[in-house]
Design brief:
Number of strands: 5
Number of domains: 1
Distance between the termini: 13 Å
Structural class: alpha+beta
Helix content: 25-40%
Length: about 150
């Protein structure tokens, strides 16, 4: 993955370094998998990675437990910048072909087309644009201090 992995890790670190993010982004990666995956999808799409899918899934446990999750996929490789919210063994970005972590989620949508071309809720789009723009401002600063 080389350059793509570096872009993903750079973006992840830029999110971590972005201050004054509104709820729920201020608790990244907890509770913001959908929005964080959406803005990463946008970032990578704008960098020329146009064949990455945004994937959403749900988990329905035996005891009425419900959990939803969103991540990216490229040719069978899972790209997940928020999985660390679920287990301590994952410290940051997940980039893997191993489906063990995600197998409990039943896929309920997959988009290759960028969300900003299909999402219709103006309030949410504005919030995501604000989140995205704040993170993008930090990408260059983070790049200067980034060590792969």
């Amino acid at each position: 993955m080389g350059e793509l992995e570096e872009q993903i890790r750079l973006f992840y670190k830029a999110i971590l370094n972005t201050e004054d993010l509104p709820f729920p982004y201020n608790n990244f990666p907890h509770g913001c998998c959908q929005d964080a995956s959406w803005i990463l999808h946008r970032y990578l799409f704008e960098k020329g990675y146009t064949s990455i899918d945004l994937v959403g899934g749900e988990y329905h446990g035996d005891n009425g437990e419900f959990m939803s999750h969103v991540w990216l996929e490229l040719d069978g490789t899972i790209i997940d910048i928020t999985y660390s919210q679920f287990i301590d063994e994952v410290s940051d970005v997940v980039i893997t072909e191993n489906r063990n972590l995600h197998q409990k989620f039943i896929e309920n949508y997959r988009y290759r087309k960028p969300y900003w071309e299909t999402y219709t809720d103006g309030h949410t789009s504005d919030l995501l644009d604000h989140f995205y723009n704040n993170v993008i401002e930090n990408v260059n600063v983070t790049r200067q201090n980034y060590e792969p």
